[in-house]
Amino acid sequence: MHRMLADDLARFPELLRSARDVAVRALAGLDERPVAALGPVPARAALPERGEGGEGALARFTERWTPGLSASAGPRYLGFVTGGVTPASLTGDWLTSAYDQNAAAATGSWGAALERETVAWLAELFGLGAAHGGAFVTGATMSNTVGLAIAREWLGERLGVDVSRAGAAALGPVDVLSGSPHSSVGKALSVLGIGRDRLRPVPLLPGDREAVDVTALDAALAALDGRPAIVVANAGTVNTVDFDDLRAIAALRRRYDFWLHVDAAFGAFAALSPAHAPLVAGLDEADSVCVDLHKWLNVPYDAAVQFTRRRDLQVAVFHNESPYLGPPADEPDFLHLTPETSRRLRALPAWFSLTAYGRDGYREIVERNIAEARRLGSGIDALADLRLLAPVRLNVVCFTLAENPAQDRVDALARAVAASGETFLTPTVYGGVPALRAAFSNWRTTEEDTRRVLAALTAASAAL
């Protein structure tokens, strides 16, 4: 054995304790660290010829790279829709690497059974029934891709084409209808060979809404003259967290033939709050569902789950045909259900966190985040220099400058806020207006964090 490997093996407990100490210092300093890292990155180093051992690597990492890592694990990182990492999920994540299971199959390990249990818990959490099977994937993009791949196979079933064998070209032109699709939907259609240009925008409800007009969707489906299609509904849009009427959309299937895929990346968590659960009424009627877990479940990157009613079609798409793997069983191994054959036990952090905090704990996180988003929205609404672009419907605050919201001025506001070190927001464009988004999904968030964010926005906007 190489000398450095032997030394690290002999001192493994000490190395893990050192890593723990670095992690503890990082987490303890979240309130004081700048939320975003804006400085120049280090020059690229040469590949080491002779290693420094685990302790040496840890020291070099701490000195060279940690100053440039964001405080995205903390409560004032409001960019994208980024959760944190609960204490229990971090514990599960460390153990995921320690046990180093390949969760592709059930052979020789209980890891796959643990994933199935976790998926069942998540289905129950989101109000999905026994008809929906699921599997862990890396994120919402992959979850949407898997769901739409199954939809593609369903189209083939309707048209008498085996897409998994003949390819997407055998389908001919495919119609994908949606009101406010996430960018990952277009990416998925490109990957699947359906094509980005086959995404057909459907008119939205009036009044600065992002929810689809179901009457317009009805007309778009009628115009297909009976040709089967894919409908992508949204349960929580990116800019304003608007929700399509899932029940009304599902009811259209009594007259039209379409696959209903619901992108509920973070909006599915509305189901946990009795006051907001009606927003996702009808989610159980979807043929496939996307939920991102490194958002509101607050487990480490990367983790998401996908659900579908048609596991048979899922196996047709993702079946890994090899003698040493064997055919799919009645309960297919996960390597037959997702693009990855090599799969870490991504479910373990989620299992830990759900076990530790339960439905009640996650309801509290969701409702607290919603309350803080509304608090920030009210604060922005009271400022002379800023204005809301939409009501705060759930956990995202979409706003811009009150006067002359030109792109360069909004960009300058974003830079000034990030430079304050107090918070980090991501840009967007809503209704043709350059804007910023503040997305609340971190388990640590408190009223004091919101006050600090509002103070930073107040100072930065006044200085423009």
Proportion of β residues? 5-15%
Mean pLDDT: 97
Q: Uncertain spans, ≥5 residues at pLDDT below 50? A: none
CATH architecture of the largest domain: 3-Layer(aba) Sandwich
The outline comes out as: globular
DSSP summary, beta strand count:
11
Radius of gyration: 24 Å
User: Tally the helices: what do you get?
Assistant: 14
User: What are the secondary-structure elements, in order, as H or E?
Assistant: HHHHHEHHEHEHEHEEEHHEEHEEH
CATH class of the largest domain reads: Alpha Beta
Give the helix proportion (percent range).
Answer: 40-55%
CATH topology of the largest domain: Aspartate Aminotransferase, domain 2
N-to-C span? 61 Å
CATH homologous superfamily designation of the largest domain: Type I PLP-dependent aspartate aminotransferase-like (Major domain)
Number of domains: 2
* Biggest sheet record: 7 strands, mixed
